[in-house]
UniProtKB/TrEMBL annotation:
Xref: PANTHER family: NA(+)/H(+) ANTIPORTER SUBUNIT E1, NA(+)_H(+) ANTIPORTER SUBUNIT E1
Record's keyword terms, sorted: Cell membrane, Membrane, Transmembrane, Transmembrane helix
Subcellular location: Cell membrane
The protein's name: Na+/H+ antiporter subunit E
Membrane topology label: Multi-pass membrane protein
Length: 164
């Protein structure tokens, strides 16, 4: 619990300093007080734990973000091509994708990654599946190939102490 509180406090202070842009003594004092207040409230609500501060993801997260950005760019080009080709290139479909991640956080990251990728939208998330609307059957087949799911699974390098 202590480690997550320190992590949350550091994030709050960094975010406040980044967004504030004012560094006078009075405003730094107000910033510190507001960060401490938010941290105290979060701890009191029981909202500071492994799920809200997933420190175990940090080692692999930058690599995943780079890979996801490449997928987003590739999907943008695919959607543009399909729109320019006309109605015959678009074949909307609903598909159920299996989730192999152990945690609800992994399922959430996968569902959000799918939605961020143009041409696909996560419609529903259940215990081990995500229902996806895709602009084409090929896009849905790519998701069922499981590369995105395996990359999200790779983020879970150690068990965070809670299960679905």
């Amino acid at each position: 619990m202590q480690r997550y509180s320190v992590s949350l406090g550091a994030v709050l202070v960094a975010l406040w300093l980044l967004l504030s842009g004012h560094y006078s003594a009075l405003l730094l004092g107000f910033g510190a007080a507001s960060c401490l207040l938010v941290l105290w409230l979060a701890r009191r609500m029981g909202a500071v734990d492994a799920e809200t501060q997933p420190l175990y993801l940090m080692r692999h997260l930058p690599g995943y973000w780079l890979w996801l950005m490449a997928q987003i760019a590739r999907s943008n080009i695919d959607v543009i091509r399909r729109v320019l080709r006309g109605h015959n290139a678009i074949s909307p479909t609903m598909e159920t994708v299996q989730v192999s991640g152990r945690t609800e956080l992994a399922q959430t990251i996968l569902a959000n990654s799918i939605t961020l990728t143009p041409g696909t939208v996560s419609v529903d998330a259940r215990r081990n599946t995500i229902t996806v609307h895709a602009i084409s059957a090929e896009g849905a087949a790519d998701l069922n190939g499981g590369e995105m799911d395996q990359r999200v699974r790779g983020l879970e390098t150690r068990e965070p102490g809670y299960h679905r």
